[in-house]
Amino acid sequence: MSLPASPSESLARWRHDRFGMSLHFGLYSVAARGEWVRSTERLTDAEYQTYFDRFNPEPGWAVEWARLAKAAGARYAVLTTKHHDGFCLFDSALTEFKSTNTPARRDLVREWVEAVRAEGLAVGLYYSLVDWHHPDCPATGDRQHPLRHHPDSPARDAKCDWSRYVAYLHGQLIELCTNYGRIDSLVVDFSYWDYAGEKWGATEIQKKLRALQPWLLLNDRWGNEPRKKIPRPAYAGDYEQTEQNIPREGLRDDAGQPMPWEGWFTLTNSWCFSATDHAWKSPAAIIRALVNCVSKDGNLLLNVSPDARGRVPAPARRILAEIGEWLALNEDSIRGAGPAAFAKPEWGRFTQKGDTLYAHLTEPVIGNISLQGLRGRVRDGRLLANNAAVLITDFWNPGVQTFDAPDDIFFNFASPTACTFPLPDERDTVVAFTLNDDAATAAERARLDAARAASIADRRPF
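Given the sequence above, the corresponding structure tokens read:
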């Protein structure tokens, strides 16, 4: 398959792949108290320096993570190159606050890019638009700058030159899109208050980046929900990102048109490694969240973070391996799939690809399983994981109990179809149904109705 050559082609590939993995990694990984530790604890440059002096990931960290991402079923992977604290994992010519000046003495972005590319994954880089280390970022009155209440901040801020900072962030983004070969996506973060849009020189820098990487996929965080706005600003980006939540339904702009989107959340409750956060989400929770996103025409970007040495926490390794196992068996219901043309069922969700409807069962059902409004619409049901047939059936006791809608049809995993059978996969059992076209639907409806009438006349189960 050829590589995308334009943003629209990149977006199409990204929407097909549906699942990616991100890493937050930096000095805050040494602190192990959250990536906002410098802000929440109001640490000065000198106090934060202790983590700079100890930052030294083990060789091979990126190779291990890239292999794990691929085994988990991710098709693209995103690394934080610079978070809000301003520390760079790359050898920027524009700052001394970078990994090559720590005990690591290495360009970690280069290691990441090479490792991800070697696994055949799309390369994504994250870059924070704010920078608490840079002298030209004002602190006084800001809601999150570590020095927002420091007594020396007013004198410091009087020397700030915002245009100098914008030139700095533009320069670093150009470095990232120049020095590491093909970059498939760039995730920026974050806009707030009036720090949005052209405050960052967003239109100008996007043009420069696309001149360097014409296929580059961009997220929406150059502004405050810019993709929703009509008319859409030039810097809006290619897709919307929701954070730590999955919307109730697929996202739409102010004109009511669907928007491509991605749910982005963490494997624990922390974005970076936290020594005290053991609230690991289960494999089933992540699998179901992925299905939830796809059923609403969205992607899932799962954040999993290394410890200060770059190692994979053991629980993360186990969870990601299980997600990868499920995806290997059921990926046809995810890759290239999207929303179904039918309402969400009570026992799980639907996804659809072409004329194949994928029923994702996450809750056990008493008796046979209803396909609401699908009488005559489905045939050839099979378990996606092993291709075993399921039984498509009518009311189990016609003429005695027909309390569901006449357009409903049912299925079950075995017979008698009135019995209750355990889900073959408690995490998410996927059943693939072939959908009839309109002519076949009418014929199938007629056949089922005739069979039902005959069975009622005979007073026997259909």
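The chain is about 30% helix and 15% strand. Try to locate this feature in the token string yourself.
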